[in-house]
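Structural prep section.
Before we set up the soaks we want a predicted structure of the protein with coenzyme A in place, mainly to decide which crystallisation condition to try first. Input record follows.
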Amino acid sequence: MENTAIYPGSFDPITLGHADIVERATRLFDHVIIAVAAKPAKGTVFSLEQRIDICSKSLAHLPNISIEGFDNLLVDYASNKKAAVIIRGLRAISDFEYEFQLAGMNRKLAPEIETLFLMPAEKYAYLSSSLVREVSALGGDISEFVHHSAMAALSGKPL
Ligand code: COA
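Run finished without errors. Recording the tokens verbatim:
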């Protein structure tokens, strides 16, 4: 049976740090589903369709992935996809508390699903989508942080 993992997030937009995590996950699993949350609590700058489109272009070099939007409970989505693993990235200690809560709640809801944490390359440890949006809106160079499709989408976006 195919070994599938889910990598969920808001991806507003996906950065090279997220892509680094996906690449690591594709070496561990037969198939990785990048699950783009339709309506994350914090809101998004890009529509779901735009976020999926930027993910597709940023990850086009990877064969064993698919990209989908989802709007239900993550563990239900993972069960429907027959995925036993949820991947999350850990960049720094500051991520831990939130990830601890998320993984704990998901384990309570669905004990059969494991959360697996992967660390991105050091050069991406300080990266986040909101910082990239801010740097771009203020005219900074973001070419080392996102795929060129995200740069194009971000150009002209206000803060
Ligand atoms: N590289 C760069 N940035 C990274 C990163 C990496 N490797 N890993 C995380 N980040 C950043 C993101 O850019 C984001 O930064 P931002 O706040 O500046 O945008 C931040 O870390 C966290 O984003 P992300 O990893 O996308 O997670 P999220 O918190 O936006 O997503 C969901 C959370 C979607 C997974 C969660 O809300 C969920 O599961 N929702 C579905 C409904 C549900 O089941 N809810 C109950 C959950 S218990």
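Observations: Helices lie at 16-26, 48-58, 74-80, 93-109, 129-137, 148-154.
Flagged for discussion at group meeting.
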